Every structure is written in structure tokens, then in C-alpha cells.
Amino acid sequence: MSAVWFAHRILIALVLAWIVATIVFMALHMVPGDPAELLLSTGGTSPDPATVAELREKLGLNQPILVQYGSFLGGLLRGDLGTSLVDDYPVLSEIALRLPRTLELIFAGTLLAIAIGVPAGVYAALHRGGRFDRIASGVTALLLAIPVFVVGTLLVLLFAQTLRLMPAGGFTPLTQDPVLHLKLLTLPAIAIGKGLAAVLFRMTRASMLDALANDYVRTARAKGLAPGRVLFVHVLRNALNPVVTVLGLQMGTLLGGTVLVEYVFNWPGLSTPLLRAVEARDYPMVVGIVLTISVLFLLINLIVELIHAVLDPRVSAP
What residue segments make up the domains of the chain, in order of their start? Predict the structure, then answer.
């Protein structure tokens, strides 16, 4: 991995982050109506003009658009995302409290998907056309067809309400009760990881079949290499490259599904303040959370590209 390639990827990520921030800023100012008036409107009654003018002054809406844009970017560079209009609480502090819980859920769902999807795809490819291959292919098609919120609801009905094996939802810190924390994490992790596991299974199976058909695999077998060495050194390593790429592309879907999963299981991640902020027209909170999710998506894709470059050095070759 060359330093020039690494610097180039970092530069691209920074430019994309700036573009996302600009789009969010423009979208905020393209919303119909006066944000201050919308925020103060209750019960269909018009707010007091003096109060509206005071709030516009507080939000800086009286300044020219370029001045507002400069202040917006300056705040981002300083790590200042503003203050919630509803709770009068720093947006960054709220995100810092909620983000680790969302990341934990994403990590658990991804780990579960990799642990199930990749080995199952490898086994299905090695036994192509067998019973496991046919059953697993049918199950993955079913998992991809069912929306994540439906899966979450079914998991609650089955494991929490009927079998009473798992709690229906909620959150307990890991330091307070590790066992209960893992139980509360299990069902939402399954709900968010089910689609990714199905995608990884299909991609791993297809990549393995493609790698097994290559000449270098037949040559390795003809040389009398052990089957395990052929599988792990010559087949699996080459087959994982497209799997890693697909994993990065699926992170956007995973982040979007997290909002629904957190809502179904009452998991106190970023979805709770986001939905509340949208309902209350708390624009600083909405912008802060949307930017955080966007930057997180860019960061995940950067990490995936780095892993891809390690697995296949030709990617970063000058």
C-alpha cells in the first residue's frame, strides 16, 4: 500500500464529507417556510412576530446565506454542531452519548452476519447442488424479501412474547449487567444482520465458485498440495476480495436499517433523538445526526478500501 494511494483516499473522503455537509446545509435552507416560525408554531396558531424575530436572530437566519454557510463550516471544523432548540443541550454531547450504542449494534449485527454468511457460503460452494446449498439459497432469498422491521417484530413475538427466552427490548449498560446487556443486544443484532448475512452468503458462494474454476486452483491440486492449503491460500483469499467490497457497499443499508431496529427494540441509539428532532423541527440536532451518519458511512467505506488493498496489493499499486 503506497503512501500516495493512502493520501489520495483520505483526500477523497474529506471532499465527500464537505459535499455531504454542503448538501445538508442547502437542504435545510430549502425547506418551505420560515424555520423559526415553524418551530414556534403550536396548535395551528401563528406565533408572536417579535418572538419569531428574536429566534431568527438567535439562529443567525437574518444573515446572508454565504455568511451562514461560512459559520456552518467553521462550526464543523471546530467540532461545534450547535445546540438543540428543544432541549438547549449541545448536539455533539447528545451524539457522543448515543453513537457508541448505535456502533455497538452495527458491530454486533455485522459480526453475526460475517460469522454466518461467509462460512455458509464457503460450504455451499464446496458442496454445490447439495441439500445444504439448496436450503441455504432458499432461506437467503426469503430473508432478503422480508423487511427489517417485520423481522424485528416477528423476533419479539416469538422469542419475547411466546417463548419468553429473550427480553422484548430496552437497554442496560454492559458495566451494570453484562448478561442482560447481551440478551438485549441479541435480537436487534439478528434483525439488523439478517439481510447482510444473506448478501454475504450469496457473494461468498459466487466468488468461491468462480475461484474454484480458475486454472491456478487446478494446478495447485495437480501439484499435490493439501486440500486445506488450496482452500485457504489459493481459493479463499482471492474469493474474499469481492466479499469485502460488497460488505462496504452494504453498510449504507445497514445504517439505514439501524434506525428502524432501534425503534422496534427501544434501543437508545441515534434514532431516538433523530426521530424526536424531526418531529419537533429541531434543525441543529437533525443536521448533526445526519452528518454523523454520513461521515460514519464514509469512514466505513475507507476502512473497507484499506482492507481490500491489503488483500489485493494490485488495488493500491501506482
Answer: 3-77, 100-311
